[in-house]
């Protein structure tokens, strides 16, 4: 396929780390949905969504 997309430079370090795990091409190294939801970046996003509701 076309390879891994470029991660935006202006994204936070946690955001870059999160995307790194999302975009991992090797299924053995790629995180599961549960692991991704447990990542600090996802937790902050969930908190922001909860505040808006």
TrEMBL record:
GO annotation, biological process: intracellular signal transduction
Domain Protein kinase: start-end pairs: 1-42
InterPro entries, alphabetized: Kinase-like_dom_sf, MAP_kinase_kinase_kinase, Prot_kinase_dom
Gene3D superfamilies, per database record: Transferase(Phosphotransferase) domain 1
Alphabetic keyword roster: ATP-binding, Kinase, Nucleotide-binding, Serine/threonine-protein kinase, Transferase
GO molecular function, one term: protein serine/threonine kinase activity
Record-stated family: Belongs to the protein kinase superfamily. STE Ser/Thr protein kinase family. MAP kinase kinase kinase subfamily.
Protein name: Protein kinase domain-containing protein
